[in-house]
Amino acid sequence: MLPTVNFPANTVIFQEGSLDKSMFIVLDGSVKIYVERKGTELELAVINKFDFFGEMALYRNRPRSAFAKVLTDCKLVVIKNQSELQQFIIENPSFAGKMMVIMGNRLAIANDLMIEKDKMMLIMKNQLANFLTEKGSFVEKKLLKEKKAVKRLRNLMARQ
């Protein structure tokens, strides 16, 4: 049996950039996953009873990408490594199916976000190219007019 930990509301379980490797399963309560940008919290998800979070830390050797903060008093299972997760799955086989479905959904959402980001980047790139082309044509026309004006001035000065 894995250890459980109780966290009171408003406790930060982990911070963006931290290196801890634990995964958590919510037995009771709820947890907010968020990032902070320019002093503002941007909520990514709310994790409720019998859901899990922090699983990527078990598989990636990278800092946390978000904060986890307790919304309501929580009781959490703490899984500290892959072998503990395997043992938990052996003891709770239905969890494996649930975990696969949730991770599949999270992967689909991440994929959709990447596609949308790529679309937005393409739109912005095209708009920038159009702007620069239009601006370039404008500048080119203006330079052509200036060139003609300079030529006229030279001709006038040459006549005098």
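[next item in queue]
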Amino acid sequence: FPKNIVPLGLDLRKELSRLSECVDLKSIGVLINNAGLARGTAAIDKTSKEDWLEMYETNVLSLIEITQMLLPSMIERKAGDIVNIGSVAGYQTYPGGSIYASTKFCVRALTESWRKDLLGKGIRVIGIHPGMVETEFSKVRFRGDEEKAAAVYKGMRPLTAQDVARSMAWSLELPRHINIESMLLMPTDQAAAGMVARS
């Protein structure tokens, strides 16, 4: 593991240029792309262009931009790890999640493509794709409506951020000749996107 971990909270759509002010880009050995934002659960005919753009800018375009910023020094060193946090929604769609799911299909496609693009350059590209994780995700999706957000996890045991972090750490701690290209990580109470056992 790296000696220094620098967690940065940036609005990726507006503040990405600030990254080089906060940290020496050439010193970064592990990049964790953990942007994930959904807006609402409306069907495609009822979604807004503003919501589509926000989801694509956050979940896809910012991920590409930050990766391109850090890749030159990783390529020069012939070492580095890129971890893209996707979603089960990048494998399975569900009603009311078409735009969000399409962004996560993009994340999965980028992860697979970058593995091919960077082959032979000493860089691992890892995809971690969780199912339901109890974070602020649902609160953001429902624009601060805590009751709706809590209902998402009611009667089931979701993953925690620590569960995902543990899986990510395991992937990174493996010897460098091993690359976890894709890990689908689900709560025991979830069998598919939108298919959940509740008590």
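[queue empty]
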